[in-house]
Write a sequence for this structure.
């Protein structure tokens, strides 16, 4: 009994959440980023029971028997499977809210800037079902600008390009709002698939998504570096059906990713073309900021700069920009009121 009293709190933590296709990150007010886990679940095909969530479930991808399914319930930045996402979300919240609480937490959640009303409502419902007393939705590019410490409230144009797992978004932001934006469902996942396809066609080798992601992180690049890197890759030989190993170079990875990178650059250029003239001048002076996991791809900033003829920089913490932005909004109610996408729900 006394142990239960010790673990009891009246209010839950205020939480900033980046609910991403590949990873979910959670920021607790006063503590910083306290959770970063893959947005993956492993479920039984027989009875629907959840067998693993997060890192453990991700390790199962491509290795499960027929009776187990490893699934990512968010696709292209939005909820694809409501019930499984709800289960995953509740689990993540339980990991960061270890005390018994009387009043649920306030949550600020990043969503794609072009999310539909149905998609936004689904996020709100999942958060309230997890016990949130207040839910605020903010556009991910807006949160990324705040997380990257750019001056969002001033009459200045800031251009942000957020390349996540499921979507890439480019937005021009001024005076606490999105002036113009574009998005494409071409991002990190498509980079992985491009590497899979390249090895199939050029080396007759079939690999899985996790190996492709490992290649992308280890030697992925946009232009062949002066000192080329190489990596041994294992998979199944499509001619013999037996396991095989080949060596792949960073130059080959660059070739594999070229189509995906060019599609993202086309989106960036389209956003620049839609910019009001006054803001275009600001962007020429201030440049473009890259955030998200895709921003870590070697040479991407230089390639985007070459395409747009603008200065391009990578945010200080590109993987954390959105969740850090939601965390800062927890501390600034006035700014939150200005940038939120949907009216607050209270339970």
């Amino acid at each position: 009994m006394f142990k239960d009293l010790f673990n009891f709190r009246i209010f839950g933590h205020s939480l900033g959440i980046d609910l991403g296709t590949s990873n979910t990150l959670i920021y607790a007010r006063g503590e910083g980023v306290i959770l970063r886990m893959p947005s993956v679940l492993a479920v039984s095909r027989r009875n629907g029971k959840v067998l693993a969530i997060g890192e453990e479930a991700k390790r199962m991808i491509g290795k499960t028997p027929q009776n187990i399914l490893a699934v990512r319930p968010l696709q292209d930045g939005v909820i694809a499977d409501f019930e499984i996402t709800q289960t995953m979300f509740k689990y993540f919240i339980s990991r960061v809210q270890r005390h018994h609480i009387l009043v649920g937490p306030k949550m600020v959640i990043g969503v794609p800037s072009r999310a539909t009303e149905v998609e936004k409502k689904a996020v709100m419902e999942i958060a309230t079902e997890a016990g949130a007393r207040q839910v605020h939705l903010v556009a991910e590019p807006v949160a990324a600008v705040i997380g990257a410490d750019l001056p969002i409230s001033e009459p200045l144009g800031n251009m942000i390009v957020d390349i996540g797992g499921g979507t890439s978004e480019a937005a021009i932001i001024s005076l606490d709002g999105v002036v113009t934006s574009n998005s494409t469902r071409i991002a990190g996942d498509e980079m992985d698939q491009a590497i899979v396809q390249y090895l199939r066609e050029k080396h007759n080798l079939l690999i899985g998504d996790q190996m492709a992601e490992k290649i992308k992180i280890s030697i992925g690049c946009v232009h062949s570096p002066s000192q080329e890197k190489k990596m041994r890759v294992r998979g199944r030989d499509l001619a013999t059906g037996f396991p095989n190993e080949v060596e792949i170079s960073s130059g080959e990875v660059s070739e594999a990713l070229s189509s995906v990178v060019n599609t993202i650059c086309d989106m960036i250029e389209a956003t620049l073309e839609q910019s009001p003239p006054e803001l275009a001048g600001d962007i020429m002076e201030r440049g473009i900021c890259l955030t998200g996991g895709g921003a870590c791809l070697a040479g991407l900033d230089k390639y985007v700069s070459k395409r747009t003829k603008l200065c391009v920089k990578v945010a200080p913490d590109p993987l954390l920009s959105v969740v850090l932005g939601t965390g800062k909004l927890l501390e600034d109610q006035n700014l939150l009121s200005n940038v939120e996408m949907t009216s607050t729900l209270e339970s």
